[in-house]
Structure of Signal recognition particle protein:
Amino acid sequence: MAFEGLAERLQAVMQRLRGKGKVTEADVKEAMREVRLALLEADVNFKVVKTFINRVKERAVGQEVLKSLTPGQQVIKVVNEELTELMGGEQSKLVKSNRPPTVIMMVGLQGAGKTTTSGKLARYLSKQNHHPLLVAADVYRPAAIRQLQVLGEQLDTPVFSLGEKEDPVKIAEQGVAYAKEHHHDYVIIDTAGRLHIDETMMEELKAIREKVQPDEVLLVVDAMTGQDAVNVAESFNKKLGLTGVVLTKLDGDTRGGAALSVKAVTNCPIKFVGMGEKTDALEPFFPDRMASRILG
Ligand code: GDP
């Protein structure tokens, strides 16, 4: 289970605070020392941890909190609110263009789950009575196009492809034109990833972005890779500009660092999380629900 270690440790700290009729500044400091360690061990970016702890301390040692009737509860409430804020505060919804189709460009490194997530997103939108079109623009990874076509068949969602010999920019452009003609209200473009970030990939992605002017550029990253996921997000955002992040494999035993750091480090909101390999295992991301899950 994701976040297991972190949740367990934070819940133990919170439990101790909850029981106290009186909470002193020293109690808060001690609790925050433990929270700090738990976050660092969960692979949360150290700068993010520092800012977080300072914010909680600043608010929690205030008179209203410590002098209240339930000081322990109040401190926990502050931690919960700050954790929510850290992950983006409000839910960040998928943008909808007022001139359909809404174009969503999926980017990410190979193996992060980009193709799978493209299929999941198509299913998610179909469930809401939209008519998405999948566009197969990953012409490099062997079998990526076939993988998307199989997903499309499973989901009853059309897949636009020009094979693997065409220029991905042209595929993306023609895919969007096809969607307009055939009244699809969403277009999901599955682009090519690489094993590592490289200039050729970025140039290609930039060229696609310039050509089709997507409403969303969603980066798919693997939560299991912890701080690496955050570094990848930072690079993609600097070089390409992102509108959001999809964090995959949150069903695994990720320590949680990526989920807790991505927004603070890159300022890009997490829009969805992947919770499994099946096509229905995609959930919109709610920072407040995640914070409550972690704090118990
Ligand atoms: P791509 O190279 O980025 O297009 O990656 P794929 O979509 O082919 O996914 C790589 C692997 O990760 C596949 O085995 C997927 O089934 C798996 N995968 C993707 N998303 C998730 C997820 O949320 N949870 C789990 N457990 N596996 C996932």
